[in-house]
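Hey L., structure's done. Input below.
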Amino acid sequence: MMNILYDPDAEGCLQERVVLERIVLADGRLSAEIPAELKQMPESMKEMFYPYEERPEMILADADGKNQMTFQLIDKKLGPEETRKAAEAVREYINSRHPRSELSPVHLYAAGKYPAGWFTMELEEAGEKQHHAKAVLSVRNQMFLATATYPEQDRMKWAVLLKQFFNTLRETA
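Output:
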């Protein structure tokens, strides 16, 4: 099922069309809506963008790799009430690995079914500024990490897309 988040034909809409599609995540435990243009990243692009062994289980990207989302179940117990604290720990780790990057404070998004602790950081890839959002959630008392990377000029659009993602998270059978 597809859902249109932005429709340029709607009066007053200045945003290009964004179609959302429900996908299955976390070893089939969850589903959520993400931009339909994001598809499984080809192996050659994975090697380029994620040149390390412990890359995320699921890496999705648009055709040129400018917009990406990753999803990964982490083998660590995590209760829903611990999400913010876990996101703070992830932020501290990222800050130690990338001390020159500007990181936002951790925010807690509690409006959806799954509370999400999340933060953003600024990256520079091939001379272009990008934003990278990391979110930590608890799925059946296990840590789940979701990320989104997108061009800096699209940060307002992605703020809405990420809220939509959080709001549409549903447990599957």
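The chain has three helices and eleven strands. Residues 83-97 form the longest helix (15 residues).

-- N.
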